[in-house]
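Re-run with default settings, no changes from the original entry. Doing this only to confirm the output is reproducible before filing.
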Amino acid sequence: MELYTPAQLDGIPGDEEPASAQIDSSLPPADRGKQAWLVLAGGFAVEAISWGFPISFGVFQEYWTSHHTFSTSSGISAIGSTELSVMYLGSPITFILLHFYPQIRRVSAAIGLAFMALGLVASSFSTAIWHLITTQGVFYGIGGSLLYFSVVLFLNEWFISRKGTSGSMSPQLKH
């Protein structure tokens, strides 16, 4: 068996890279450039929307307990718990699915945003607690999980060497 040095391997015929394996220099640069920082700004906005409503659930709870339709209901706290539990329990499934099928990330983000918007709009027409648990709890939770993890995976592709800097601006990069 004959061993070759890397310099000797460069001259072996048929060892050239195919044209499809060459790096496309028209892609925007990672870690710098306007596109990378715009993606980071979008990630920050998605983080605020995805986790902002569930974390600040007390604002909704205060309104619903003072609203005449839900003032006597005892299950209001189940809405926020459902919302967070759907997002947390759905996260491993969503993350694994989006990791192994990266071509569906954009579609997943759009579907997630639609579910979140649908959940919030539909909750404004609710007349019973189970309506709120379904709309704001389940729909918003599913949508939040789909949108959030799509963006997390996008951000990890845009920032490599400056992950610490960008992670301080958007905590989701630390995952």
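The CA atoms of residues 9 and 52 lie 55 Å apart. The chain has a mean pLDDT of 80.
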